[in-house]
Amino acid sequence: MKKFIVMSVLLSAHVSAEEVFTNSFETLVATRVSTLELKDPHMYVNFGGCQDFTYTIFGQPGFNPQVQDSIENDDDGDGFLDLNWVTQYTTDQAHHLVTHSVDAAQWEANCTEPMSTTTCHSISTSPIWQSVTQEDLLSTCLTPRAGTTSGYSPSIVSTDAPCHTTQTVDVVLNLSGTLIPLRDYQQALSYNGGDVTSMGLHMGFISEAEADQVILPDDIPLVGGQPLSSVLPGGTGSCAVHDDRDLDVTGTVMGWWFYFNSTSTLVPLD
Ligand SMILES: [Ca+2]
Ligand SMILES: [Ca+2]
Fold it and tell me: Phi and psi dihedrals of 71, rounded to 5?
């Protein structure tokens, strides 16, 4: 009898531990980027002199605030938030994000407004990319490559433990209608429990040739219709006097390493 009681206590302890960690949606854990900030390179446009419009331009919202607006709002009125970076993991235990290696996949998704109660629905049959996470409870998971950053402020935040990073994969990311191909893409996050992840870092490389082919959407003020490379320091037609270009992992292709910092929220995804 005593043995049975001990067993029961152990069993209930186990159950409550699982309940503590199980995400409230009882589905696979998914995260949606809720803040996103391009840290490096910065973007420049020639408009009354060469202007860095990464954050502001003449007191108006620049690139990052416009991306953030797309994350938080439904400006086109279709009922869904306008920019959704949603990653799903093959676990229903949120703490596995930083204690286990799991499969990760980014899905094209419709996420309902308002953002505070959003739920997401995948709208494609295959993911945008898929990879595998490497967890780390003790050290830094992802940090910029040496010699590829330009010392902008605020600076790039590396992803510290408890954290994970994905293995490199070639991706095409949708950034408010601009499709940006990034090679050797990795994303990382830090997680300490609850519904929010922190210290997200997204990095990947775009070659000059590819950046010449990416045309910025016409509805972006001042730079719409121009190649992405034209707003990047060192790019064809850029007004910037400095050069943010880097070499890729092979050391043979010139382009730019892109670095975004993010935070994400756990969301239901079906
Ligand atoms: Ca919308
Ligand atoms: Ca650079």
Answer: -70, -40
